[in-house]
Structure formats: C-alpha cells, structure tokens
User: Fold Class A beta-lactamase-related serine hydrolase from Streptomyces rubrogriseus.
Amino acid sequence: MSDTVTAARLDAAFADAGVTGWLHAVDIDSEAQVGAGADQPVCTASVHKLCVLVTLHELAAAGELDLTERIECPPTGRTPGPTGLAAMLDPVLLSLRDAAFLMMSVSDNTAADLLLRRVGLDAVNRTAARLGLTRTRAVYGFGEMLGTMREDAGPDGARALTDPHVITRLRALDPARTNHSTPRDMTRLLGAVWRDEACPPEYGAAMRRIMGLQVWPHRLASGFPFDDVHVAGKTGSLPTLRNEVGVVEYPDGGRYAVAVFTRTAHTAAVLPAADAVIGTAARIAVDALRAP
Assistant:
C-alpha cells in the first residue's frame, strides 16, 4: 500500500468519525513507519501514565527503589476518578508495582499520583529526555491537571464542560500548557520498552505484562479482533480528546508500535465512533506496514 493511499485512508477514517486525528506507527524491528501528523504536539492526558511507568521501572533497575515497597493510601485526599483506588472508600496498603498495575490497567488517577509522589515529576521528565523524547514533557500531576480543569470551568463545574466556549479555555486541552508529547515520541517510547532499551529485560518484561492487562478494548484493540493478535496499550481521555498508544503483536513475530491521538468538536462524553476510529486508523497503519 503506497504512502499516498494510506494517508488518504487515514484522512477518510478520521473524517468519517468526526475527529481530527494524528497518528504514528512503526515496525519495532525494521523501523518502517507510517505517519499522519506524527510530529503534532498533543495533550497526552492519561497516556502520560506510560512515562510514569517507565520512570518507576528505571529507578527500580538502578536500585533507587524496590517495586515491592508498600505505600499507604488513606481515603482522604485521593485524586478523583471512576476506577481503582480513586473509587474505593477504605484505607489501602499496596506495593508500588500493584499501584502501577492499577494506574495502567484501569487508568487509576490516585495510583498514578501515589507513584508520582514517590518518583517525582522531574524524574519523569529526565527519563523522557534520556530516551530522546524531545517533545514530551510532564507539567502536572494528574490531580493538579484535573484541578486546572475545575478552575477553568468556573462555578458551574462539570456541567460547564458541555459548553464549547468553556472547552476552549481549558489549560488541560492546550499542549503548550499541559502534559504533552507527539505521536512519534510515543512510538519511540514504546519501541524502547519492547526492545528492552528503556530498562533491563526483567523490568521491560514487567512493563509489557502490565500494559497487556489494560481492560479497555474499545479503542486500539478494536481494530485487531483476532485471538492470536495481542494488543497492549494505554488510553487517555479528556473532554473532546480520545487517545491510545500501544503495541500490536502478530503470531508471525511482527511488532508494531502505534500512537493515535484525536480531538472532536463534540463535547459529549460518549462518542462510539470517535473511540472506534482509533482502532480503525491503527489497523490501516499496521496493514500498510505489513503489506508486501
């Protein structure tokens, strides 16, 4: 499939779903690639939890922390969210690696901020720099990012997030003022994890296992509905934004890192077509990379 045909198919898929989309996909082993706005700055939302995961394991590999170390999570002061620790009512004691599992598998905001307090935002940015992610930066923790949304939404709170005029003033949706990256940076990070360049093999395997346990099949994985194709990924969502980055592995050994970021003018929280196009676009890109 030619680059021109692939680009046209991606453009049509994004347009049909009513989104603006940016994508980068790369064969992890040959480094063949497909892109559509691959260097566009994008808001990462919860996709940035992947950077936290890599930092945690990098520090563990260096002996600066132990993944079995226990952390306490009292019921007060938790970062809001609908899943994991954020939704629990009682005190919790868990290991760093189990917090990482919750952060990645169900995108638990409280677990993510517990880990960020342990490793530090500066360490996350140092890891990104070490791996050559020159356009990736963490500006806020996840609770802080949600706090900017509350401030920017004003007195009407969450109800205001259905107003397109309010959406335009949210710092959390401006790559220049919040956690950000590019599709190409994210596939570079995924490639480093899958090739054991980010951390020694023991820690790379642990990260790949956790990413393979994500529970959301409605975005990236929806493009690969086969029992013998494995998809490991991390979603990210904010009002009007739906993202996912991950790796698609075929039974013949083919491994493809894919990053898809989308934005729509619609403020509805439920837009199935906007979710599904992430899988559609990823499939188009991977098919192009696998074409003879």
In short: The CA atoms of residues 249 and 255 lie 5 Å apart. The two ends are 8 Å apart (CA to CA).
